[in-house]
Design goal:
This protein is α+β, with helices and mostly antiparallel strands and about 375 residues long. It contains eleven helices and 17 strands. Strand 11 and strand 12 form a beta hairpin. Helix 1 crosses helix 10 and helix 6 crosses helix 7.
Length: about 375
């Protein structure tokens, strides 16, 4: 069957960062090779892959050589240009498909897509200029968050509008690019679902995890999240609905807000509101490498190669901490700690705010 790639096949990965690196590391034990398309030969994924091609996203000659050398194409970040994805899709299967990129590269398109499925999000509005921003702030209120529609991550391309904030200055600070204004959601905690869908439509999801951010960068992920079982079931249902609507193949991350209220009757009620979708393996799923029976990276490899999805069962209580900037200099201390699983990404320079690695700790059920 053409949808099922046997051991010995080659996965082409667009992007040479740490996510591509961990995809390559997960593919190798399954007898699968990886070929990285990256801008530079010293990127983290290139250090562990079977082969690499270097070039720009617009270099069709390099893209064609890359396509000829692989059996399936995937990507480690969602800002692959649509033209690049289309060029490759005409030559080899691209999984997840270009529809996922179309719906998630633009925050306005993403919110429209989610609301069209009946999935709750923050209130939002398109903003094309400073005048439109002033009008929309009047409708949505403050605090609210102005975001560029494209290319924002780890807090980049965002501006928090408080009482007294100069809306014109906020719009100029984001370069005058098309934006989206999102209302503030009074959440209790941020959570995410890492789910997967196979070529045959099968679905699997890891336990909902909860996330803490510092300076807009993910700092700590803990699994399972503190939430009611029925709320977790709602989160899984939302993830499943998104995957089916996109005819998705691979791993996806759905970031959500957990909103909780105690009613006049004293009963606590929870719900989840979707914040963003990442059509790829995700930082908040790194805990699965040691913390689940199948890691998110192996699950992604299995899905895009047409293999059966693995078990997403959690192994215990799990904590993953990112090593940001010079925190990675603690590698010797972490390596000496019993039970600490250290992952370093092979980046040469530890800059402030740069993810250099992570460490995972699992508390096995027998130790509780």
């Amino acid at each position: 069957m053409p949808d099922i790639l046997p051991p010995g096949s080659t996965i082409g990965v667009l992007g040479g960062g740490q996510l591509g690196r961990m995809i390559a590391l997960a593919a190798a034990p399954l007898g699968l090779k990886t070929h990285i398309f990256a801008h530079h030969a010293d990127e983290p994924a290139c250090q562990v892959a079977s082969a690499m091609t270097t070039g720009e996203w617009t270099d069709e000659a390099a893209l064609a050589r890359f396509a000829d050398a692989v059996d399936v194409v995937t990507y480690e970040f969602e800002n692959v240009p649509a033209a690049t994805a289309a060029f490759l899709a005409a030559r080899k299967p691209v999984r997840p498909g270009p529809l996922a990129l179309e719906k998630t590269q633009d925050r306005l398109f993403e919110k429209d897509f989610l609301n069209g499925l009946g999935i709750p999000t923050a209130p939002y509005a398109a903003v094309e200029n400073a005048g439109a921003l002033a009008r929309q702030v009047g409708q949505i209120g403050r605090p609210s968050i102005l975001k560029t529609r494209r290319f924002g991550y780890d807090g980049k391309g965002q501006f928090l509008l408080r009482e007294g904030s100069d809306v014109g200055a906020a719009f100029r600070a984001l370069g005058g690019a098309p934006c989206i204004l999102e209302g503030f959601v009074p959440f209790e905690r941020e959570v995410s679902v890492i789910g997967a869908r196979g070529v045959d439509g099968t679905f699997a999801a890891f336990d909902v995890c909860e996330n803490e951010h510092e300076n807009h960068i993910l700092s700590v992920t803990r699994a399972p999240a503190r939430m009611a079982p029925e709320t977790a079931a709602q989160a899984f249902e939302i993830c499943h609905k998104i995957l089916d609507a996109l005819d998705y193949v691979g791993v996806i991350a759905v970031e959500m807000f957990l909103v909780a209220e105690t009613g006049p009757d004293g009963v606590r009620r929870e719900k989840v509101v979707v914040n963003e979708i990442a059509p790829r393996v995700h930082n908040s799923g790194h805990w699965t490498i040691e913390g689940a029976e199948t890691s998110q990276f192996e699950q992604h490899v299995r899905a895009i190669c047409g293999w059966p999805l693995g078990s997403a069962k959690i192994r215990g209580q799990v904590e993953m901490r990112n090593l940001i900037g010079d925190e990675a200099d603690r590698w010797r201390e972490i390596a000496a700690e019993p039970g600490a699983a250290l992952h370093l990404y092979g980046k040469a320079e530890a800059r402030p705010g740069r993810k250099m690695g992570h460490v995972t700790r699992v508390i096995l059920p027998a130790a509780r």
